[in-house]
Structure formats: structure tokens, C-alpha cells
From TrEMBL:
The keyword Zinc does not apply. The keyword Hydrolase applies. It comes from the Bacteria. InterPro entries: Pyrophosphatase, Pyrophosphatase_sf. Coiled coil: none annotated. Its EC number is 3.6.1.1. Keywords: Hydrolase, Magnesium, Metal-binding. This is inorganic diphosphatase.
């Protein structure tokens, strides 16, 4: 009996051991860290690949979609250059929000997502873009091909979530959602993040 290809003897690191996907940047693999039901901010631990509790959310706001990142991406110089309000990238994997009709309640899952747009986000003068995608073959949203194919309320909720999820009473907000862009710009950001990753970490 032979093992299937690829075969992982050990669990691959979600950031470095998985791929962005053979159809990237149109369709990407997304690793989900947070579901719409989470009131705690979880984040991948960059060293071990395990999920780490980043912080309990201070406000009552919950993510309006699945939230995670695209493997083998890195927000470096190229991603930063695409954001006129940023001086650099945030040196994290590229974030992605995935819309689905059916509730997905589990994190630490991988899925294929069709890219339709994104939010230009700046945090402390660092580019922190949020790619917006739909679950591929989703019964309700699988036909979306551009961000305008999604209801305005979905984008409004995403903007509001990121505008407020770090707010602390009495303190200023260092994060700003500067705009919404379509799939062409989103694909440029993904390509830039893949190139930034190769420069920072090399190829497999």
C-alpha cells in the first residue's frame, strides 16, 4: 500500500506547510481562525502552528463572517506599497473573510474561497488588508464574482467589525478602514503577499 501524494507524516504548519492554492489569486485556500460565533480573538501561533488565545473581545461585536488567513502569504514591502496610507506591511499572513450561507461553527478548518474584493485597512501605519471571498460552491453566494454581487449590509457589517473590534473606552483607535475594493485589486494584493512571502521565507 502506498501513501497518497501529498502525504504529511506530521501535521503541516498552517501558515508555512499549506499552499495558497493552485488557482490563486482567483481561488485561494483559507485557514479559518475565527467563526462568527467567537467572542474571543484567536490567532495562529507563528512558531508552533497551534491556535493561541490573543484576547477576549472587549465589546459585544462578533465577526460577521469566517475569518482567517491565506497560507504562504506575507504582508511585507509589496503589500505595503499598495496602500497609500501605510508605510509598510504588518508582517503577518494576509487576512481573509469568507462569506457562507450555511453556518460553519468550527475553526481550524481549511476551505476554498473565491476572491471578490477586500477592505483596505491601516493599523499603526501598517497595511492590514482584509480580503473578502465567498465559499466556493456555496449554494447562495457561490455565484458571486465581484464584491458588488454581495449585499451592501454584509460589507457594512465587515467594515463596522474591523472599525470597532479593537476599541477601548478612553483610548484612540489606531486602526482605520480606508475603503472597499473589488476583485482586481484584491488579486493584486494576494499576488503581492505571495511574492513578499517568497522573499521573506523562500519557496518550498
Amino acid at each position: 500500500m502506498s501513501f497518497p501524494s501529498p502525504f504529511y507524516r506530521w501535521r503541516p504548519h498552517p501558515w508555512h506547510g499549506l499552499e495558497a492554492g493552485p488557482k490563486a489569486p482567483e481561488v485561494v485556500l483559507a485557514y479559518i481562525e475565527i467563526t462568527p460565533y467567537d467572542t474571543v480573538k484567536y490567532e495562529i501561533d507563528k512558531t508552533t502552528g497551534y491556535m493561541r488565545v490573543d484576547r477576549p473581545q472587549r465589546s459585544s461585536s462578533q465577526p460577521p463572517s469566517l475569518y482567517g488567513f491565506v497560507p504562504r502569504t506575507y504582508c511585507g514591502e509589496r503589500v505595503g506599497a499598495l496602500n497609500k496610507n501605510a508605510k509598510r506591511g504588518d508582517e503577518d499572513p494576509l487576512d481573509i473573510c469568507v462569506v457562507s450561507e450555511r453556518p460553519i461553527t468550527k475553526a481550524e478548518v481549511i476551505l476554498d474561497a473565491f476572491v471578490v474584493g477586500g477592505l483596505q485597512v491601516t493599523d499603526n501605519e501598517e497595511a492590514d488588508d482584509k480580503i473578502i471571498a465567498v465559499l466556493e460552491n456555496d449554494n447562495a453566494w457561490g455565484g458571486a464574482r465581484e464584491i458588488s454581487d454581495l449585499p451592501d449590509i454584509i460589507i457594512e457589517r465587515l467594515r463596522h467589525y474591523f472599525d470597532t473590534y479593537r476599541l477601548v473606552p478612553g483610548e484612540g483607535n489606531t486602526l482605520s478602514v480606508d475603503g472597499v475594493y473589488g476583485r482586481d485589486q484584491a488579486r493584486k494584493v494576494i499576488r503581492a503577499s505571495m511574492e513578499d512571502y517568497e522573499e521573506a521565507f523562500g519557496t518550498a
